[in-house]
Amino acid sequence: MYRYQRSALLLAGLGLAQACVTATAQSSAGNLRLHVRDSSGAAISAKGTLYGPTGGHSQAVEAASDGSLQVSDLAPGRYTLELSQPGFAERRSTFVVRSGTTTTQDIILTVGGVNTTVDVIASTPIGALNVPLKDVPVPVQTLSAQTLLDTNAIDLTDAMKRRLNGVYVNENQNNPFQPDVNYRGYTASPLVGSPAGLSVYLDGVRQNQPFGDVVQWDLIPKVAISSMELIPGSNPLYGLNTLGGAIAVQTKDGIANQGFVISGYGGSFGRRAVDAEYGGNKGPWNWFAAGTLYHEDGWRTLSPSSVRQGFAKLGYAHGGTLVSLSGGYAINNLTGNGTQDFRAINRTTGLNHGYNSVYTIPDVTYQHQPFATLNVTQAVSSSVTINANAYVRYTRQNTTNGDANDDSFDQSLYTLSAGDKTALTNAGIPYPSTVQNASTVPFPYLRCIAQTLQKDEPYEKCTGVDTDTVTRQHAYGFSGVLNWNTTHNKLSVGAGFDRGGLTFQQTGQFGYLNADGISITRVNAFLDGTYTDDDGSVVDNRVNLHSTTTTPSFFVTDTFSLNKWVLNVGGRYNHTSINNVDRLPPASYRGTLTAVNNFQRFNPTAGIVYKASSLLNGYFNYGESSRAPTSTELGCADPDFPCSLPNALVSDPPLKQVVSRTYEFGFRGNPDGRYRWSAGYFHTNNYDDLLFVAAQATGYGYFQNFGKTRRQGVEASASAHLRKLDAGAEYTFLQATYQSSQTIEADSNSSNSNAKSGEKGVADGGLITIQPGNNIPQVPQQMFKLYADYHPLRKLGISADFNLIGSSYVRGNENNQHQADGVYYLGSGKSPGYGVVNLGSSYNITSHFQLFAQINNLLNRHYYTAGQLATTPYDANGNFVARPFTAYASGDYAVRNTTYLAPGAPIAVFGGLRVALGKR
């Protein structure tokens, strides 16, 4: 690891040294030489405007009939060119003109309705009309493929958390490819049971899976990403689940990405990876292919991961027709060993100590996914186009999750009964003749084995439990939109149909913790209804669910501009039907999952932009959106039959769909100018929000509708785009609160009803009351980001970013009242704020070879992105101690409850070589 650190630091240091000693080149005029073509390669004429390098400078330009466009004697700096031609999409391109040189480039105009740059956004997920950012009544944020390169991001979520205002991550899984991505207090997560509130699209196809609306970020190939847009607010045009925003990702093609590029890099934690891409075009055809091979050992104990992604696209462009057929395949093995007791993290001695320690293993996910997407655009006339797409996708996921069995923590695990001894003797298993206790048997297991042999109480006497799941999901759908584009009006009318099916199976098996304190040895006892707990309840976490979700929809949006005013109105109607079929045999101790649920709603939106000048405009927007309860939530919604997360479904009473209403307003500068700024206020209320009512994240509970929640705050940003420097600052104040009262179970919270009644530490039936104004867990109030991409020399680039994220409450502390007492309740119940600095550098040896290096968490800070309150069997020295306290008069035993935290990765250094061959 240190070898890589020294290499990267040396490279970055050399770059900085060269930047300091290189004299600034004297300013002299530069030239711009462009050639304008259509997608088939034919030269076309076009008219436009060239802006820059100062916000007030612009000039009209026109490409000749042979496509040539030349502008001479330009001052050095960054220029933006806006080109248009009837029948083609408006194109905005950015160039850096350097002193004494001629900048040359091909400009490709595509058929109207296809989003080609990040300076405009599509009005719907499948494309439709390109609307300039300055005409959009919300503060859209974008990322490009170049940003992914500049930041040396390992995937899309890595770049988002470092460069997009208001975006933060909770690493509950603690795997770099499995974060909870959050924006404005809403989540797109790979973890079933997380409160989904962001919709994600790839080339117009919704990536939220039918099961739980989860998003598998590792299935989105970073190397194939062309651009990404973050559209804030409750935008109904992006369909279900767009409560807080939508993420739209577009992939590359062979027109704008010609040639072959391969990158290889390696570094800390055994990280090694190869990214490759190849694109080209001939006549009306173009093609693009990309792939990633990635592996790392992981920085935490026993946490390896492998990612293998492939992507290909074939395109056809001729006249007014544009067709693309894309597909991909991913096979990934991911390990995410979750949160850890803060005391174990801080310990320097004993078992399972240190920042890189884990609580239990395994927590592995294997998944693979093939998919195919067809997109078609047809220009009917210079003002009318038709967009359509169709897709099919199949995903299989297998998981194995090992947990300590918290139902054993308050049990007698050391003293063998007469029946235990007889069972062990008959099985030929020796046992000590002396009395045992926690000091002589640090990890008791004989009672687990004995109770299993007797088929009696393994539920209480086994210290571990493994859960295995298999999820098979398939989805297909199609949509189409008719676009009418005139000088002052952009109208889109469309419809869609989406259908998803899933089969989910789960089994559980008891076991005992081994002497390493983290792994589990399974025994021949299953959570299949054979056993009962000490209350007489049957123990059964099996699930065999088949479900189909069908959503037809239609939508309309219209953008009307007149002089300085732009008005946008639209809406979408969704009708969702969820048909659950329970394939387990009926049983008296559980409800049935079989049910049909229907949800429908029309969600409107309206916004206005006033462009006072080229340097100032104001905006206001109102939108509504909704999401139907998922099969997961519907299958875990009965307080009489609570289920265990992640996925133990037991009954299916009706739930209401969640409805969000957002309004926001603000002011901003020219989004295409040299200097850009934005400031705004947003306010979103969720009605009938969904809350998992549970004692802890690994315990029992159920989903229920929660009256109202609110997310409101202020976003502000400023950036400069100069000749050698792109830099920016971003700030978000976010207040996410409950707005209704609700009583929930929270056994590990020190303010629960058990503790107040005099039975502190009893982890069964403790209740807390959420009050209006309580902060929602895992949502920081303050976020501040700085970033810079600096090119002191033509061959040298340096990037840096700084993220400062405020503290937040952990799960289980929904009432914000938890207080540690040092005996029964440990830890603050909060995840502390943190700051992380990242530094990167690149050096172009030649036009074909580039060296790059990256140092993440440069100052090697220990920080935490998420947390939860839960029980623990360990004392302060890391020793396993069952039944640590004497019984109360009621006969109940107390256990320790602690704060578990999700640590962020320490300093990581990696670097590599990028080779580009052919025309780029």
Structure, explained:
The chain has a 22-stranded antiparallel β-barrel. Mean pLDDT is 87; it is low at 1-27, 112-118, 645-653 and 695-699. It is elongated, with a radius of gyration of 29 Å. The two termini are 34 Å apart. With 920 residues, it is mainly β. It is built from nine helices and 50 strands.
Overview features:
22-stranded antiparallel β-barrel, disordered N terminus, 9 helices, 920 residues, mainly beta
In a few lines, what is going on in this structure?
This protein has 920 residues and is mainly beta.
Instruction: Indicate the low-confidence ranges by residue numbers.
Output: 1-27, 112-118, 645-653, 695-699
Distance between the termini: 34 Å
Based on Cα principal axes, name the global outline: elongated
Number of helices: 9
Radius of gyration: 29 Å
Q: Please indicate the percent range of residues in DSSP E strands (runs of 2 or more).
A: over 45%
Residue-averaged pLDDT: 87
Could you give the topology of this structure?
Blueprint (H helix, E strand, L loop, with lengths): L1 H20 L8 E9 L7 E6 L6 E6 L4 E7 L2 E8 L6 E7 L4 E8 L10 E5 L2 E6 L8 E4 H6 L5 H8 L3 E4 L9 E4 L2 E3 L9 E5 L2 E2 L18 E8 L12 E7 L7 E9 L3 E12 L2 E12 L8 E14 L2 E15 L4 E2 H5 L16 E17 L4 E21 L13 H9 L19 H9 L3 H4 L2 E22 L3 E25 L6 E7 L1 E5 L5 E3 L2 E20 L2 E18 L12 E19 L2 E12 L3 H4 L8 E2 L13 E11 L6 E20 L5 E22 L3 E14 L3 E4 L7 H4 L10 E4 L11 E9 L5 E10 L2 E2 L20 E2 L2 E11 L4 E8 L7 E9 L23 E8 L4 E10 L3
Parallel strand pairs: 1-7, 14-17
Antiparallel strand pairs: 1-4, 2-3, 2-5, 5-6, 8-9, 10-16, 11-12, 12-13, 14-15, 16-17, 18-19, 18-50, 19-20, 20-21, 21-22, 22-24, 23-49, 24-25, 25-26, 26-27, 27-28, 27-31, 29-30, 31-32, 32-33, 33-34, 34-36, 35-38, 36-37, 37-38, 38-39, 39-42, 40-41, 42-43, 43-46, 44-45, 46-47, 47-50, 48-49
Helix pairs in contact: 5-6
